[in-house]
Amino acid sequence: MPSVLSDDGTTFTPEPAPALVQSATGRGDETGLPPLVVILGPTAVGKTEIAIRLAQRLQGEIVSADSRLFYRYMDIGTAKPTLAERSLVPHHLIDVANPDEIWSLALFQQQAQRAILGIHARRRLPFLVGGTGQYLRAVTQGWLPPAVAPDARLRAALESWAAEVGADGLHERLAVLDPQAAQAIDPRNLRRTVRALEVIYSSGRRFSQQRASAPSPYRLLQVGLIRPRAELYERIDQRLQAMINAGLVEEVRTLLAMGYSPELPTLSAIGYGEISAYLQGRLSLEEAVTQIQRATRVFVRRQANWFKPSDPDIRWFQIGSSTVEDIEVVIRAWLDELEPLPLTVIAE
């Protein structure tokens, strides 16, 4: 087969996946759906390493569902897979935008579906990998964005209000009006908070009630990765220290020197916002590190609201020495149950 050019610039010459060529759809009323393996779990659990190893074994390609990996120049603070790792299997939706080119959920959904279609066309197995719940579900559950047109005047008023009360203050107002939407939105993500309030005030209905969904366009196998909470927190701390040692401060300094505002959603994200505050003299480095650790733990707890151990649609694996082999067995058995790919899927 010809080499595949991933959208991060790396190339890879794939071989067809034998199981995928022979099988791909579900049973009963799920026949005709193309397959999609989802690898999900909290930050720092080890999704990147395991997904790459599985994709190597199963002739797959990885579609990132981590909203922070879209952006160029943000490598260390996002724990972005290295170029060496990305050369092992094709990766998609990494380094596809500049930090001030903010991707909406709808744009991600469109681009992810396009990447998955291309993977199926090459008769390879797509892996959707990430820990951002709304991004994963936008693809797997066929979410349809609220049908409320942007209102520039209202948005400007909300942004002006945010300048007075801060992002947290605006998020608290959202929590009063729509607790479910507030729980799903990071208080740091001012853009999404503003959009949710814009929809609420424009329509008179809760934002969370307007997110329609269509049947999933894929036959899904969802694999969840977990570790004991204490072990996960220790990994978070170790990873943060490794980021500092690898040059996180210089990475943020370079982004600011390039003219990117620390007020951008990308540069106010966990890790970048705190280091920006350190560089501006508002925090010591020790205080910045402590705040990053605290914010990451809160984020992990928020992720747990999206991915629950009781969810019957997720196959959970506690990471250990044989995790990759155990998951591979499950995936191969799942593929063996499927029927041949429909021509509408494999056509260019």
Q: Mind sketching the topology for me?
A:
Elements: E1 4-5, E2 11-12, H1 18-22, E3 35-40, H2 47-57, E4 60-64, H3 83-86, E5 91-92, H4 105-121, E6 125-130, H5 133-140, E7 143-144, H6 152-177, H7 179-184, H8 190-203, E8 212-213, E9 219-226, H9 229-246, H10 248-257, H11 272-279, H12 285-306, E10 314-318, H13 323-336, H14 343-346
Parallel strand pairs: 3-6, 3-9, 4-5, 4-6, 9-10
Antiparallel strand pairs: 1-2, 7-8
Q: What labels would you give this structure?
A:
alpha/beta, Rossmann fold, six-stranded parallel sheet, two-stranded antiparallel sheet, 14 helices, 11% strand, disordered N terminus, disordered C terminus
Describe this structure in words.
- This protein has 348 residues and is α/β, with parallel strands linked by helices.
- The chain has two domains: 4-144 and 213-229 and 308-346, P-loop containing nucleotide triphosphate hydrolases (Rossmann fold, 3-Layer(aba) Sandwich), CATH 3.40.50.300; 152-210, Histone, subunit A.
- It is 48% helix and 11% strand.
- It has 14 helices and ten strands.
- The protein has helices at 18-22, 47-57, 83-86, 105-121, 133-140, 152-177, 179-184, 190-203, 229-246, 248-257, 272-279, 285-306, 323-336, 343-346, and strands at residues 4-5, 11-12, 35-40, 60-64, 91-92, 125-130, 143-144, 212-213, 219-226, 314-318.
- A six-stranded parallel sheet has the order 5-4-6-3-9-10, sandwiched between helices. The protein has a two-stranded antiparallel sheet with strand order 1-2.
- α4 packs across α5 and α9 (229-246) packs across α12 (285-306).
- It is globular.
- 39% of the residues are buried.
- Residues 1-29 and 342-348 have low confidence and may be disordered.
